[in-house]
Amino acid sequence: MTIVFSILGLLLLALIIVKVNLSIQFHKKIIELFALSKNISQQQFDKSQTDSLPKPVQRYFNYILKEEHSFISYVRIKHEGQFKAGLKKGWMNIKGEQYATTEKPGFIWKGTTAMFIAQDLYIADNGRLIVSLFSLINVVNAKGKQYNQGELLRWLGESILYPTNFLPSDKLKWFPIDDKTAKLTFNYKGLSLFFKITFNDIGEITEMETKRYMGVNNLETWVIKVSDYKELNKVLIPTRFEVLWRLEKGDFCYAKFDITEIEYDKPMKF
User: Which pLDDT belongs to residue 169?
Assistant: First the structure.
């Protein structure tokens, strides 16, 4: 019996050490992320910046941003929600913590469930997905051009949470489609990305659709649906997200997130 307790004690100690090490590594990545991107809060929103944009995009910025709103440089986010790990998997509860930068595209997200910890990240122009089972064993450690594309797309779509990042620039352009939709393009480091974005009558974005790699080889339609807009820290943002793959066999929703906390221009860990 003493031997059994000794083994259990060693296993518990090993688990604690692994969790502490993961936390330290995550913190280091946050520091690296923020260090790579400059503060751009001296820039301010002027409605004249939207004069040449498609009508629904003008409606969006007039509804979302107030005149002379400072450009957002850094973001930190917490959310709760549900997640599916596969097409035939069930829903599981998940809590997320995320950090993002705007001057240099980048983010890191950690999602924690009862079974695994997942990290999505785009740092120093490289995308990566890491999944650790029970905080012990890496069962996914994926990187490469498909993940560079996918993680940069995630960062771009989530600009709806830091909306000054949607303003036109040398990298980001808007093109008209009709009164309710517009096309957003973003060119960066050899990657040409786009979203077809749908707006409602009052100016809220309701849906963003693009093409993203599902795995390594399959380029599929990827959709972000947003709703429940609220003003948090003087920024009007959606607080409810549904993320799905629009496949031939139908829509497959795999993430339902509710924003619980968001702060701007605090480049440090929660």
Answer: 97
